[in-house]
Amino acid sequence: ELDALAWLARQTPRSAVVLAPPAWGGRVPAWAARTTVVGHPIETVDAAAKARLAQRAFAGTLEAAAAQAFLRQQRVTHVLVPRGTGFAAGAGLAEVFANSAVVIYAVSLPR
To answer: How far is CA 61 from CA 64, 79, 98, 111, in A?
Structure first.
């Protein structure tokens, strides 16, 4: 886990926006100094709605078109995916980091 956060800190611009599971929302800003879509509930605009969509994405129950729309709307540049989740990397996602615990994808979707 810390390897992935260190990679984000070293290899992504400070302007990067990371989609991570809601449970990781506080870790990414604290350890990698990057913005997350679902962060601390009090500091995240529309936290409950974003958390629901993120949970569906990581459970694998969010349709591909809806997932891509969510990524575009939130201006996500990277997705941090713990292994064992149902997250399905689709078109526009390229693996840029992997270890035994997580995979990080760079997002490249048409706006």
So the answer is: 9, 16, 23, 23
The radius of gyration computed from the CA coordinates of the chain, to the nearest angstrom, equals 13
Residue 57: DSSP 8-state: H
| Residue given tokens 């490249």 in the structure block | 108
CA angle 24, 25, 28 (to 5 degrees): 80
Return the SS3 of 54. Answer: helix
Per residue in 10-45, pLDDT (tens digit) is 999 999 999 999 988 889 999 999 999 998 877 888
Quickly count: other Cβ atoms within 10 Å of residue 78's Cβ.
24
Q: Please count the CA atoms within 13 angstroms of the CA of 67 that sit on its side-chain side.
A: 22
For the whole prediction, is pTM greater than 0.90?
yes
Residue 77: CB atoms within 10 A of its CB come to 19
Q: Are 106 and 93 in contact (CB under 8 A)?
A: yes
User: How far, in whole angstroms, is CA 88 from its chain's centroid?
Assistant: 12
